C-alpha cells in the first residue's frame, strides 16, 4: 500500500450540459469534500445558464462553445487542473463527478479517502438503487462483459462516472473513449496497464433515465458507444493474457481492490 502525502490536494472536475438547475448545489457540495481545493466545471455546450450558475457557486468554469461529449469535457477539465498544479509539488488527484448529483455530491468522499490511502489508483463509486430508473440492465451488462472479457474483472457498476484517480492513472487512460464509452474504455485501459481499481459504496443520488422514448434513445446511444469502445480495444489487442492475471477473475465485491496484471 502506497499512502499519498498528507499534503496531497484534490481537484473536482464536473462535465456538465444544461445543468443550471442542479450545478450550484453540486459545486457547493464538491467544495465541502475534504482535501478538495479546486472545482472545475466544464460547460459542454449548454444552452442554459450552467456556466454562470457554476461560477457564482465558486467553480472555475471553462466552456465548450459546442457540445463535444463527456470524454472531451473530462480531458479539458484535467488540462485546466494541470495548469493550476504546483510545479514542484504532487499533482492533484482528479475526482470526476456528474453535474446532477446536487447536495449528495459530498457522498463521494470515500473515493478520495481510498486513493489517498493508497488502496487503489482509481476508486469508482458504487451507487445505491436510484429511484425512477427505467433501464433493464442491457447496457450495464454489455459493459460488464466487455471489461470481464478483457481483464477478468466483473464490476458491479461499470458505467459509474464518479471516479477518483491519480494523475498518472488518468494520463495512462488518455485518449479517452468517446461518448458514453468513456468509463468502459478507461476501466479496460487502466487494468491492462497494471493499475489497481476498486469499487467503493457511496450514497449518491442523480437524475435517472426513465423508460420513456428519450430514455430509450439515451440507452441506445450508450450501448453503441460502449460496444464501440470495447470492440476497438479488443481489435487492438488491449487485453490481459489470462496466464498473466494478477487476481482471480471472479465477481468483485465493492471494497475489494482488483489488479489484473500480476505484480513482478
Characterization of this structure:
The chain has 264 residues and is an alpha/beta fold. It contains eight helices and eight strands; from the N terminus they run E-H-E-H-E-H-E-H-E-H-E-H-H-E-H-E. It has helices spanning 23-31, 50-56, 70-84, 109-116, 138-151, 167-173, 182-192, 213-235; strands spanning 10-16, 36-44, 60-64, 93-96, 122-126, 163-165, 196-201, 258-259. An eight-stranded mixed β-sheet has the order 3-2-1-4-6-5-7-8, sandwiched between helices. Strand 1, helix 1 (23-31) and strand 2 form a beta-alpha-beta unit. Helix 5 (138-151) runs parallel beside helix 7 (182-192), helix 5 runs parallel beside helix 8 (213-235) and helix 6 packs across helix 7 (182-192). The longest helix has 23 residues, at 213-235. The protein is globular, with a radius of gyration of 17 Å. The two termini are 15 Å apart. The mean pLDDT is 90.
List the helices and strands and how they pair.
Blueprint: E1 10-16, H1 23-31, E2 36-44, H2 50-56, E3 60-64, H3 70-84, E4 93-96, H4 109-116, E5 122-126, H5 138-151, E6 163-165, H6 167-173, H7 182-192, E7 196-201, H8 213-235, E8 258-259
Secondary-structure-derived class:
alpha/beta
Principal-axes geometry comes out as globular
Average pLDDT score? 90
State which percent range the strand residues make up. Answer: 15-25%
Order of helices and strands: EHEHEHEHEHEHHEHE
- In total, the number of strands is 8
Treating each run of at least 4 consecutive H or I residues as one helix, how many helices?
Answer: 8
Q: How is the largest sheet built, in terms of strand order?
A: 3-2-1-4-6-5-7-8
What does the oligomeric state look like here? single chain
N-to-C terminal Cα separation, in Å?
15 Å
Tell me the major beta sheet: 8 strands, mixed
Low-confidence stretches: none
- Give the proportion of residues in helices: 25-40%
Q: Write down the Rg.
A: 17 Å
